[in-house]
Design brief:
164 residues, binds dinuclear copper ion, 5-stranded mixed beta sheet, alpha+beta, 2 helices
């Protein structure tokens, strides 16, 4: 049977593509992977957060701002459709000191993006996203959820106020 030269070429090209696609799947499963979220904050049972049973959580505290020796720790719950704290009351943090955010979700995947900064993380149920930032100047930064999380996604926002 005669197979046209271009047909053979396309056939070979499609085989290469199939092998390449399989390769990306294998790489994603067993390779070093790409960190979509900083999971250095550890894990926490989503139901513990949903029930507000913060005493039972090893890696999470009641949402709020806590002084540390070098700066502050901020614990935030991202849930449909607010940041707690952040939405009903702004998160107040000091300028010039390291601010470590610990963010988790009891329901679905959310995003935590601080407008005007490079702070940007996914917030995944069961994981505590942890990241440290030092705000050099007093300012206000909007918190934006950048992962579609349901019908109220577009309303899910908050505010960080950097004070003296
Ligand atoms: Cu939370 Cu989108």
């Amino acid at each position: 049977m005669h197979v046209h030269r271009f047909e053979r070429l396309w056939f070979a090209a499609s085989l290469v593509l199939i092998v390449a696609f399989l390769g990306t799947i294998v790489y994603g499963a067993v390779g070093p992977g790409v960190a979509m979220v900083d999971d250095s904050g550890g894990t926490v049972e989503p139901s513990v957060i949903a029930n507000g049973d913060y005493e039972a959580a090893d890696n999470f505290r009641e949402p709020g701002v806590y002084d540390t020796e070098s700066g502050v720790d901020v614990y935030v719950v991202a849930r449909q459709y607010l940041f707690q704290p952040g939405t009903t009351e702004p998160i107040r943090v000091p300028a010039g000191e390291p601010v470590t955010f610990h963010v988790t979700s009891p329901d679905v995947t959310h995003g935590f993006n601080l407008a005007g900064t490079n702070v940007n993380s996914m917030v995944i149920p069961g994981q505590v996203a942890e990241f440290t930032v030092t705000f050099e100047e007093t300012d206000e930064h909007g918190i934006v959820c950048h992962e579609y999380c349901g019908s109220g996604h577009h309303t899910m926002e908050g505010k960080v106020v950097v004070v003296e």
